Give the backbone structure.
Amino acid sequence: MDFDINKYLDSLPEDTEYICLDGHFLTCIPSLERFKNLRVLNCSNNRLRSLPSLNEKLERLYCDYNQLYSLPSLNENLKEISCSNNRLSFLPSLNENLQELHCEYNQLVSLPSLNENLQELGCSNNQLRSLPSFNKKLERVYCGNNPLTSLPCLNENLKELNY
């Protein structure tokens, strides 16, 4: 049975905070603008090539295992992004509130500057030759299987480094 995304979205109340579209072989997602309280969007395991604009209240975005070439601009409230296993070659600037970024298994050749609040960075299995400076709050970094030529200075709060 085919999944009718429009029918599903129409069935949700406007104050919905969590939308799960995981694993439906979707190739696009219509606008989610009417969901003003949306805090979590899970659209992993589809065939998406792009995402709609992100709601200003969105805090968590899970879009792993798609065919994304880029991400939309990141709103200021995003705290976690998981965009692994896509075709991303670059990432937009990170907002100041982002705490976790997982972008493993893409085609990234560089990363944007890390904000001051980022605590976890997963960027393994890309084409990264260098990493941006680590902030003081960064605790976990997973950067293995990249052609790194050097690492930035390590901070005293770093608990895990996998390279």
User: Anything to note?
Assistant: DSSP finds one helix and eight strands in the chain.
